[in-house]
Amino acid sequence: MDTPMTDAQAHAPSEHRDDLGAKVGMWLFLFTELILFGGLFILYSAYRSMHAHAFEDAGKLLDVPLGVTNTVVLLTSSLTVVLAIAYMQRGDRRKATAFLLATIGLALTFLVIKTIEWSAKFEHGIFPGSPHLLEKGPGETLFFGLYFLMTGLHGLHVIIGGILLTVMLWWVVKGKTTQDNYVYLENAGLYWHLVDVIWIFLLPLFYLAA
Question: Per-residue DSSP letters for the chain?
Fold first, then answer.
């Protein structure tokens, strides 16, 4: 005699397909992001080969300690988001919440440091189209044009990632994300890792260019 399926069993295949679809969708999105930044990295390499000395001189004007500090901040945030997901998988909502808060706090720290750095550059007349920068020649103009474009685009991704993590935090607190349903938290973590990986490439390209 066949045993009737429970509601949970009946919905399990559907939920599995939804989770798989969400994961595949996220990986496809991450792939398009890699193409975007990959194209910018290639553009940077082409211009650097044409203006090697100017790029080296321009790199000396960047604040390496701030760049390295932000690298440590983002690497730490990668660890905290991993721990948040791990504790959610174990059903420990309190610790998952704490590590999500830590990740969001580190994201804000990164943005504050980047704002300080950009503000200093503007105060010294170093920004796209500034007369001071145009006097230095095409090489340094290209360097800082790419610097503001790529770090600005990365900063936008940090903001988007922070918003996503804040939504995930809200879902954890409200019980929408659980031990058995955490795929969106996992996807937010993947996005955040992408943000970190991109910065790992930006650091040597700009801050260590000299």
Answer: -PPPPPHHHHHHHHHHHHHHHHHHHHHHHHHHHHHHHHHHHHHHHHHHHHSHHHHHHHHTTS-HHHHHHHHHHHHHHHHHHHHHHHHHHTT-HHHHHHHHHHHHHHHHHHHHHHHHHHHHHHHTT-STT-HHHHTT-HHHHHHHHHHHHHHHHHHHHHHHHHHHHHHHHHHHHHTSSBTTB-HHHHHHHHHHHHHHHHHHHHIIIIIT--
